[in-house]
Amino acid sequence: MDAIKDFLLPPAKSTLAEQTDSLFWFVHGSSLILTIGLIAVIVYFVYKYRRKSKDETTPLITHNNALEVTWSVIPLILVLIVFGWGYQVFMNQTVVPDDAYEVNVTAQKWIWQFKYENGAQSTGKLHVPAGRPIKLIMSSNDVIHSFFVPDYRLKQDVVPGRYTEMWFNAPEPGTSIIFCTEYCGDGHSDMLGEVVVHEEKEFKNWLAENAGGGSKPEDLAPEEWGEQLAQEWACTTCHSTDGSQMTGPTWQGKFGNEENLADGSTVTIDENYLRESILEPNAKIVEGFPAVMNTYQGQLNDEQINAIIEYIKTLK
Known about the structure:
Blueprint: H1 2-8, H2 15-48, H3 65-94, E1 101-108, E2 111-115, E3 121-123, E4 125-129, E5 134-140, E6 145-149, E7 154-158, E8 164-168, E9 174-180, E10 193-198, H4 200-209, H5 222-232, E11 258-260, E12 266-268, H6 271-279, H7 302-313
Parallel strand pairs: 1-5, 4-10
Antiparallel strand pairs: 1-2, 2-3, 5-8, 6-7, 6-9, 9-10, 11-12
C-alpha cells in the first residue's frame, strides 16, 4: 500500500496532507470496489442470460423494488459521507489557528516574494519554522497566480487587488517545491519557489540575520550580489546574459551602447536608463519587445538596484 501511495502521490509533509489523502483514498477505493462489483455483475448477467438456442426468447422483466432502493441508497450514503468528510477537511484547511505565524506573499511575473514581521524578506524561498502553524497573506502585483505546494496538498489563487489566505503546519524540517498553477505568461513554467522548513532555533537565527532585508552580504562584491539578485528576482527569466532572444532585451554587451526605442527615438544605455527601466519599465520600450515588465518600485532598494546595474556592466 505504501508503494502505491508513493507512486500516486508526493510525500505528505503537512498536518493537513494526511486528512486530504485519507479522503482521496476513500473516494478512489470505494469507486474501485463499485467498479469491480459492477463489472462482475455485468459478466455474470452476460453469462447467465446468454442465448442458448435460436428459438429462445428473452423473458419479460419488470422491476425489483428492493434492488432499485439498494442502488439508490448506497450511492446516496457514499455521497453524504464524502460531503461530510470533505466539509470537515475544508474547514480544517480554511480556519487559521490563532497562534499562526504570518508571512506576506507577493506574486508577480515570475517570482514569489516573502516578507516577515521583523522586516526580513526573501525571494523564491519561503523560510518557516517546523511544527508551527504558518499563515500566508497573499496578493498579486499583476495577474492571477496560484500558490501550490503538492507536498502540503494546498493550493490557493493569488489575485491582484485583494488578499487571499492559506495556512499550513509542516512538522518536520525539509524542503518542498512551490508551483504557480495559474497560467501567467511566457515565464509561467519558471515561476517556481521553495518552502524551507527550519528547526525553531535555526529559523530564529535566519530571521535575525535577515532583519530589515535588502542589505548586501559582506562577502560579496556589488556585481556578484547583483548577479545573485538577478537570479532571485527572476530578471534572467526575461533578459538573457548571453545575447539570446527572450521576452525582453538581452543584457549582454548593452551598457554604454545606443538602443532603438519603439517610438522611433534612441537612448544611451547608462546607469540612469537602467534605473528608470527597473522602476518605470514602460517609460521607454525597446523596439521589437512587448511592454510586459512590472515595476520594482518599492521592492528593490537603491543598494539592490545599484548592484544589478553593476552586474549588467560586467556583461560585455
